[in-house]
Amino acid sequence: MRRSIHRFAHAVMASAALAATVAAAPAFALDNVKFMIGANPGGGYDQTGRSLGAALVAAGVAKTAAYDNKGGAGGVIGLTQFVNTDKGNPNALIVTGAVMVGAIETNKPPVTLKNATPVARLYADTMVITVPANSPLKSVKDLTTQLKANPGSVSWGGGSKGSIDHILAGLIAKDIGVDPKKVNYVPFQGGGEASASILGGHVTVGIAGVSEFLPFIKSGKMRALAVTSKERTADIPTLKEQGVNVEIYNWRGVYGAPGITAEQRKALVDAVVKATETPTWKEALTRNDWTPFLLTGDEFGKFVDGESARLGTTLRELGVAK
Fold first, then answer.
1. Cβ count within 10 A of residue 198
2. Are residues 271 and 234 in the same domain?
3. What is the spatial distance between Cα 160 and Cα 84, in angstroms, rounded to a whole number?
């Protein structure tokens, strides 16, 4: 009889421990977080998604992370697939940023970020203008001199049409008195493709986030002419200190799937915030010269609405969007 009582007591304690464990578990644990990356491998979107995925796992808020690269149209092709296939999926995230916002304003696609769920803005990324190591252009002055003399002779390689890269080329032209509509802009679907074209000398200059081109700059394969920040980044001179009055930043963040509940979105937001507090994420910030720029939930959504209006106006002024 005493043995039966002990067995019963042990079973009760085990059940209580299991119940406590279940109660302590998050309501919507991220089992296998799925990232849609609307660009080919090798670029800033790709680096962002994979760095955040690693940080989510390191933070213990996701078991694993999977990645789907779907380049094209500034991320809009990936966004369309994400919205159509992941509706209601609480474990799905899509990487977004100024490039996608600009592409949406330019192309006016039927699917926009209004069809997804804002989760978090992550960081700001200074942009850099580079040339191949053997280029005759040694400075921003060399670049602007050629641009003034023959705008079409300067081909600019960067992200998709209407992207923040495209906007930067137009702003530089406008600042030095060249019609932005004469900018010879060559769009690419991903950072890897753009890098190969610049290294091969197929375009005159390249534009990307510092993080994308820094390895090539450090190895001597590319020469950095300028960064777009207020102060130097990676000891690269700014546009402003070289006489071009342009200052602009890229930013990146993540959206969740359409149709998720408020509780599911909160679980995603909380998970991402915890990920940004890990050494894994902080090391990615340092390694890529990313500046923390965290904003979550509805406030992030309002920020994106403001960016859409701002970039849309600029694109229309530059003759890129209607």
1. 26
2. no
3. 22
Partnered with residue 127 across adjacent β-strands are 209
Residues 77 and 150 reside in one and the same domain? no
- What's the pTM? 0.76
Share of residues in the chain with pLDDT > 70 (%): 90
b or e along 32-60 (b: 16 or more beta carbons within 10 Å of the residue's beta carbon)? Answer: ebbbbbbbbbbbbbbbbbbbbbbbbbbbe
Same domain, 110 and 131: no
Range of the domain at 181: 126-242
Residue 50 lies in a domain: yes
Q: Would 148 be classed as within a structural domain?
A: yes
pLDDT given at position 320? 82
CATH of the domain at 300: 3.40.190.150
Q: Residue 33: pLDDT above 80?
A: yes
How far, in Å, CA of 165 to CA of 170, rounded?
A: 9
* Residue 181 token pair: 């509509």
Can you give the pLDDT at residue 259? 97
